[in-house]
Amino acid sequence: MTSLDKPTSETDRTTRTDQEEAEAKAVTEAALFEAFGGVRGMVETVVPGLLFVTIFTINKDLHLSAIAALVVSLVLVAVRLIRRDTVKHAFSGVFGVAFGVVFAMMTGNAKDFYLPGMLYTLGLALAYLITTLAGVPLIGLILGPVFKENLSWRTRNPGRKKAYAKASYAWGLILLAKCAILFPLYWWADTTQFGWVLVALKIPPFLLAVYLTWVFLAKAPPPIDVFAEMEAEEQAEKERKAAAAAAVRDQEY
């Protein structure tokens, strides 16, 4: 009996399973970093708000605080452009800060600098929950292209769809819990207290949601690479045409 004929031992199966699981976790981690911007994206999300509340705590100057936050957001975008990096996360930060500056300037209330971001968070939480209830989890729509599976998980990969649903519910509930803390504070706390609480809640809920997404997807079936399937189909079609053309030439001769 050759080594190829020998039955696979339980140890070998476990080793392969562990290896496949490790590879799945690594791929999922890389995809999440790409989708959500990684450490740099988190820094770009926190810095403008942190600068705003720091300056406002020191001198209570709404205009200076707002302008400083907007300027640092633009600088972050400029740095990405110079380095030719992906700018979608930095641009989203600029738009968020710009809306906050407009709100605060219009009302004269420094707390309104944070209001657009809070409303966006609430809307995003509802979007995660509603799309999941509708059978199209938002996190799957976000990550599907990153994993090169597009929407194949909806009909061809039920285990993965279930993982996306769990992750979307996690995102929705975590963001709703964040809103449940921030909206009462928006009415009751002063600007300085509210600003520091909001900055403190920027990263931890996000990291928790990303971690749970990683856990759910790492245990899910692997994604179906629809791009590879299309390339394989195109190659097969070329080979069929070449074979047909060769058959025609053989008949002619």
TrEMBL record:
This is DUF3159 domain-containing protein. InterPro entries: UCP010219. Residues 7-22 have a biased composition (Basic and acidic residues). The chain crosses the membrane at residues 62-82, 89-106, 118-147, 168-188, 194-217. Pfam families: DUF3159 (PF11361). Residues 1-22 are annotated as: Disordered. The keyword Lyase does not apply. Keywords: Membrane, Transmembrane, Transmembrane helix.
